Amino acid sequence: MKKIITKLAAAAALTMALAAPAMATPSTQIWIPSTDIQAYKTGHLGIDNYIRTTSHDGGNNFYDIGLTAGVLPFEKIQAEIGIDYLDGGINSTADKSPFYFNGKIGTPEDAWFKGSPAIAGGLYNAGTKLGVTTQNIAYGLVAKTLPVIGRLSVGGYHGSKTALGSGQNNGVLASWDRTMSEISDKLWMAVDYQSGNSYMGALNFGVSWAFSKNVSVIFGYDIYNNTDISTGGGGQNTFTTQLDINFP
């Protein structure tokens, strides 16, 4: 179940100044991209908040407002593009260049033959400040929904060595998500993971409730692989709320 129906450092010194994760999000799970793609001629507004669970110099809070639109009129091959405004509230170098871009193309499950997996690839966190916000994370994912178990996704990513850190700019993406129809078709749960010790690396848990066909909220928790912001980590863990609105 896609989030839209329910919802980075140059050098160590710069990472300390940013002290927050930056996610210019395509259609996602909790944190990582998903194989879901916004439908043609529809839009999605996402308002995400990442609030630190401790105030002990573990990084600042972060806020993301993003728009995503479906752009291909085909059933078997779909695509979306998006733009995000990201703000860490500390007037850092990154905050002064707050716009990030993303794009994705892929094919849904069963598109080519019965049982074929969903496949998607794209680019996100494409900023405008060279070496600072130009994380340019390219990724690919394969996903399959299994009876009872839910959907399993796995893939990998590769980003800018300058922005994410040498040796920390590539890794694994993985997730599980499921609509909990035994309880309610409005309830969705997910766990996702991004490897690496940059501030993009994290293990994330979340639940979502759909208040209507077009409005839902995700409540999640983010555990960063590296909490030491002085070494390029994501800082202390965050609680996230993600409001998702689809239109028309």
- The helix content is under 10%
Strand order of the largest sheet: 1-2-3-4-5-6-7-8-9-10-11-12
Biggest sheet descriptor: 12 strands, antiparallel, barrel
Name of the CATH superfamily: monomeric porin ompg
User: Low-confidence spans: pLDDT under 50, at least 5 residues?
Assistant: 1-21
Briefly, what is this?
The protein has 248 residues and is mainly β.
List the helices and strands and how they pair.
Elements: H1 12-18, E1 43-52, E2 62-70, E3 78-87, E4 99-107, E5 118-126, E6 134-146, E7 150-158, H2 161-164, E8 170-179, E9 187-194, E10 202-210, E11 215-224, E12 238-247
3D structure, described in words:
There is one protein chain. The protein is mainly beta and 248 residues long. The chain has one domain (12-247): monomeric porin ompg (Porin). The chain is built from 2 helices and 12 strands; from the N terminus they run H-E-E-E-E-E-E-E-H-E-E-E-E-E. It has helices spanning 12-18, 161-164; strands spanning 43-52, 62-70, 78-87, 99-107, 118-126, 134-146, 150-158, 170-179, 187-194, 202-210, 215-224, 238-247. It has a 12-stranded antiparallel β-barrel with strand order 1-2-3-4-5-6-7-8-9-10-11-12. The chain is globular, with a radius of gyration of 17 Å.
